[in-house]
Description:
Shape of chain A: elongated
Low-confidence stretches of chain A: none
Radius of gyration of chain A: 17 Å
CATH architecture of chain A: Orthogonal Bundle
Distance between the termini of chain A: 39 Å
CATH topology of chain A: Arc Repressor Mutant, subunit A
Shape of chain B: elongated
Structural class of chain A: alpha+beta
Radius of gyration of chain B: 39 Å
Number of helices of chain A: 4
Largest sheet of chain B: 10 strands, mixed
Number of strands of chain A: 3
Number of domains of chain A: 1
Strand content of chain A: 5-15%
CATH superfamily of chain A: Winged helix-like DNA-binding domain superfamily/Winged helix DNA-binding domain
Number of domains of chain B: 4
Largest sheet of chain A: 3 strands, antiparallel
Number of helices of chain B: 28
CATH class of chain A: Mainly Alpha
Distance between the termini of chain B: 59 Å
Oligomer: heterodimer
Low-confidence stretches of chain B: 262-269
Mean pLDDT of chain B: 83
Strand content of chain B: 5-15%
Helix content of chain B: 40-55%
Order of helices and strands of chain A: HEHHEEH
Amino acid sequence: MSEKTEVWQGTLALMILKTLEVLGPQHGYGIARRIEQTSQDLLAINQGTLYPVLLKLEQEGCIASEWGASENNRKAKFYHLTKAGRKQIASEARQWKQTTEIVGRFLDLKGEAQ
Amino acid sequence: MKRLRGWWRRLIGTLAGQRRETELADEIEMHLRMQTEDNLKLGMSPGEARRAAALKFGGIESVKEQYRDQRSMPGLAAFGKDLRYALRSMRKNPEFAAAAILSLALGMGATTAIFSVADSVLLRSLPYPQPERLATISVDGAISAPFFEAFRHESRSVERGALFTSWYFNLAGQGEPERIPAARVSSELFGLLGVAPQLGRTFAAEEDRKGRDDVVIIGDGLWKRRFGGDPNIVGRTLILNDAPHTVIGVMPPGFRFPEGPEHHAYVGPFPPAEMWRPMALEGWERSCFNCYNFAMIARLRPGVKSSDAAGELTAILQQVAHRKGLKGTMAVTVLNLQDAVAGKVRAPILILFGAVTLALGIACVNVANLLLARGLRRREEMAIRLSLGATRGRLIQQGLTEALALAVCAAGLAVPIAWVAVRVLVAMAPEGVPRIGESTVDARMFGFAVGLALLTAVVFGIAPSVVAARQAPGEVAKTGGRTTTVGPSMLRGALVVAELALSLVLLVGAGLLAKSFLTVARIPLGFRPENVLTMRLSMAGNRYDDQRRAALVDQLVANCSALAGVVDAAATSTLPLTGESEGWGLLAEGNPDRDAYVEARVRAVTPAYFRTLGIRLRSGREFDENDRGQPAVAILSESGARLIWPGVADPLGRRLLHQKPMTVVGIVEDTHASGIDVEVRPYLYVPFWQFAPAEFALAVRSTSEPVGLARAVRNEIWRMDRNQPVTHIAPLGEVVADSIAPRRFEAILMTAFAAFALALAAIGIYGVLAYAVGQRTREIGIRMALGASRWSVVGGVLRQACGLALAGTAIGLLAAFRLTPLLRSLLYGVDIAEPVFLGSAGLLVGVAVIASLIPARRAAKLDPTTCLRCE
């Protein structure tokens, strides 16, 4: 069994936003599935934890939601990106890249003292 | 920006309600179904598929909870819930809420009110530019014109100076004749104060000279009342004291000068001036060094201190006195105008403020006590909530919310209380408290009082929650919340002791003031004020010369005596207790020591005066018709006679020297005419005819309650002189009562504070004992089951009560002994204060015991079997 990683605070939001950008309007289950697939089941998330994050993003105006019909013609709540959400992805992605780059440099350090 | 928007949406979410909840449930259900379907596709059995879906989703309830927290502001929602809970518990326990809220509100309201009055009378700056540079300058209460000139010209500390003194105008013309209190002031005055008139101008320097001085400035009140705010008033001619005067200006509203009792210590109190006329010194006033008839106000140069100015002016005074060959060493007093205005009322107001602050302190202690008691009663509830998973923060937040709700209710109630109290104080205050009319509820003091109440409520409101939150929930739950923890009980006992001690201090203060008042009220006056009606008249002006005045007064007295129901009528230059009269230095004829003169107050009286006022004749006779002309005769008061002729049994027929010799024809009883609480002074009475003052008073003794006579007497006066204003119509009894009104006022207020404190202390001790009995129900039950009598149970409770009461009394007595010297300036004849101390202590212990009887009775009525079973 592969070792699962805890999700960092805040990264889940970025994952959701990016997923919505790629898939277009999607319901909560769809987003959860997609995140699992993308992370190739390496992430240990309870799917439920997605919903408070979705609400937070909605409150901040990054996404919006409306009720619609699912593939199986069921009533489901669909989330889609807003203009602010797209901007948010760009800026968060930039920050994320910067952070990983910096952390990466530290990890690449070789022992110089000895 | 984004975050702000998020918060806003959450705030909306807090308020919006139920719909989101069902939506969320739908959304989650849908999620689970989709997952279950996918799981079925993977070949799971239906039950397994659903279970796996739920597992993957995680704790549904915890997600919902997180979702809710995200949706709204949990703190705020909880606050609302706590607040509702607090209000509900207030309703359920109205005695507690009422006691806490009322005591705090009364404390805050009263403190704010007294401070507001203190602020307007003592602290608020006078309404002049740079008021700190204004000062009154005097030698023993007054100054003479030549010394004033010397100060003005030679002093480096005085920038500008002005003289003033009291004056009266009889205003005749349209409407009722009116006697208008006025002031004679140097033309410099208005510039010195830095006040401009709202209409017209102030005096020019040349109007300050005899002959040019027929001009007046009038006050805003008079202008509006008498002249209907006529905008063309400037330039109008008024008939004042029978001579035409031109109005040259109207002062702005709120301009009051002179103000305060100390201003005119020499001329006696008089109502605030409504007219001002130029000083226009007479020739003799200009040159008389010893005529201390004036008050002086000065604007000191910037940075000059009162004490330095006093030093410099004293040096000038002594130089001038030396140059002129004047005897006596004199010192100049320079008093900051603000202090001069506050004068004698300063001490009582500060003392009352101290007392009311103590009362507020007691109210806070009381509320602390009540809150602690309630907190302790709730320990079990808190323990249960803790074990059910409430966070400690939540418990503390709840305690805080409840305490705040109490304090806010009390503050809300305190606003109208303070508002009403200020008005009551202003209305009740004795006459002559300067600037009291300006009092308004002071926001700073209210803020302070509310702050103190909030602090108390917060500290003692959350203290029980903090204690409870620290305890292991199991412990409390196990004991059923009934064991007494020593800490809080000790604290509560200490609070009650503090309350009792503070109350005792107030009780002693109130007792001392009340005793002083009663002592003063019981002093024999030396005259009998019952059934005597008095009023004041003024025959100043050109129409009257001395002879005409004397004739008019004779006529008036005769007409009044003839009225139905009148026993006697008389006129006098000054009625008892209405101000001080002139003093004469009297020397016994033949006494070789010319410095051995006795200073006596002089009163000119008509023949029936002593009978009218009920002053007893000790020997000799009253004045009669034969005393109209020469030789000069006089009547002395007993103490005067004793001082002038020590050891002479009956000085009748001997002669006194003051300018001219006078023969003593009578000796009368001493009177407290200068003030009931002032030592008896020697009085010299001279026949009205020989002295005929322009300002005088009429006294009429009737067979019954004299108020009904007022109209008849006034008509009698107006029948003789249509333009004669009549003022101060009052029964003599009222004049007497008014003269000790300040004492009564102080005693009443102090007693009110003490009663308030005592009631709070009773509530406090009752609360503590009731709680203690509740805690020990089981123990008492066991003891009774084992054969303890009801009396021993009652005794146990009373013992605890007495312990608290005695501790409080001991501390309170010590504090009272230390604090009563502060009261000394307000006391009279209570040198032996032990009865007051003991009486107050007894009262306090008595009230404490009575308050503890209710819980004691409850303890005695306990049924042992019920007690043991109820555990």
